[in-house]
Design brief:
Elements lengths: L13 E7 L7 H12 L6 E5 L1 H10 L6 H12 L14 H18 L6 E2 L18 E2 L1 H10 L2 H4 L5 E8 L5 E5 L7 H7 L9 E3 L2 E5 L8 H6 L5 E8 L11 H40 L8 H9 L5 E7 L16 H20 L1 H4 L8 E4 L15
Parallel strand pairs: 1-2, 1-9, 2-5, 9-10, 10-11
Antiparallel strand pairs: 3-4, 5-6, 5-8, 7-8
Length: 387
């Protein structure tokens, strides 16, 4: 194991961390976010991801800064190339767009995606029980080839940009993080983070099988917040599902709403927990200051003082807001048209955030948890989100 220590990380005024949620086809939004952050000079020191977020994170950490955006384009152009011939000269009218998206999703589910996955032949029920072929509908060998082509794993493991990806141990059900600060990563670790069953097979690493980290938590935010601090932290949390949404009126909308709630809830929970934890930390600090000097060497007091050392954390929420013609297929609808829209939405939301007066007036805090969610005003009211 290529073990590194936290002390090896240089202390910075503010450590920038890019946290990327899972969300399949919606991941192009994250690419747009990164492109705009990079153009503004907000290069991350650390990237953490789950599922499609892990793939985007590897493309970022595994390439030099001047090639990252191009590599993101290479990946997203490749996986949407099968639909490129079906891109209409102008976007279909809203009345037809939902049908277009559903047809695109069905095409990908039937024939697979170039450089990503292909249908199993023979199908899983006809495969030998216990083999990878019997455990999934698709073969993800094409993804491994794509990652090895687009990601420089020597650079990824060099320590220049830290990378963390999450997966779930199939046998124990426990969450596992693969982190370049602790071990050397390769294509298997990235694939494991995105191995969503029953579509994709589990990935074997050191004798254990792993599935998509989104089965336990769709965001690595808590993992990031739990790591020992080397500086104040600026976290760009990029989510692909929004918690707030309209009350469904049919079963198709029920499926979408359930998915949004399930995959978005951990982000708000983790942020709330971080705020509560910091309040307790501040109270502990005040209590320690009030205690008499003769307790200074008490082991319990020393433990309390150690636990109450916490740097400032700033969390910037960048959340993809659904289009009104999108449905429950939005995370597996890989049309070139939708990919381009998601990418541009990421660019626009990030540009809006970085130019917002509240952000421009910000100074790096010395303590506390500070949250910015500056694109909420751009989201339609839930009752008006569907026609």
């Amino acid at each position: 194991m290529n073990k590194r220590t936290h002390s090896a990380i240089p202390r910075r005024k503010e450590e920038r961390i890019l946290v990327l949620q899972g969300g399949g086809a919606l991941g192009a939004y994250q690419a747009g976010v990164y492109e705009t952050l990079a153009a503004a000079g907000e290069m991350p020191h650390w990237v953490a991801g789950i599922s499609i977020g892990a793939i985007n994170a590897a493309l970022i950490a595994g390439n030099p800064p001047d090639r990252r955006v191009q590599r993101l384009h290479d990946f997203w152009d490749a996986v949407t190339s099968s639909s490129a011939l079906f891109v209409p000269p102008v976007a279909p009218p809203v009345e037809l767009r939902s049908a277009f998206n559903d047809a695109s999703a069905a095409m990908g589910a039937t024939f697979g995606l170039p450089g990503f996955f292909s249908p199993r032949v023979p199908a899983a029920p006809f495969q030998l029980p216990g083999t990878a072929g019997a455990l999934s509908f698709y073969d993800t060998a094409p993804l491994r080839t794509t990652l090895e082509r687009l990601v420089d794993f020597d650079l990824l493991n060099s320590g220049s940009t830290r990378l963390s990806v999450g997966a779930v141990d199939v046998r124990t059900g426990n969450f596992a993080y693969f982190d370049t600060i602790n071990q050397r990563l390769d294509a298997r670790h990235i694939m494991a983070s995105g191995a969503l069953p029953p579509g994709f097979p589990p990935i074997e690493i050191d004798g254990e099988l792993y599935w998509d980290g989104g089965l336990v938590s769709n965001t690595p935010l808590q993992y990031v917040l739990d790591q020992p601090e080397v500086a104040n932290r600026l976290v760009f949390q990029v989510d692909l599902f929004v918690a707030e949404g309209p009350v469904p009126t049919n079963l198709v909308q029920v499926a979408e709403r359930e998915k949004d709630i399930r995959f978005s809830s951990r982000t708000r929970l983790n942020t709330t927990n971080a705020l509560a934890r910091h309040a307790l930390t501040q109270a502990a600090r005040r209590l320690v200051a009030k205690l008499p000097p003769n307790l200074a060497s008490d082991p319990d007091l020393q433990a309390l003082k150690a636990a109450s050392r916490e740097a400032a954390v700033t969390v910037v929420h960048l959340i993809y807001r659904r289009k009104r013609y999108e449905s429950q297929s939005k995370d597996f609808e890989f049309s070139r048209l939708s990919m381009q829209e998601h990418w541009q939405a990421g660019c626009a939301d990030t540009a809006h955030t970085l130019s917002h007066p509240d952000w421009r007036a910000r100074t790096p805090p010395q303590d506390g948890v500070h949250v910015f969610d500056l694109t909420r005003s751009r989201m339609p009211h839930p009752s008006k989100a569907r026609s």
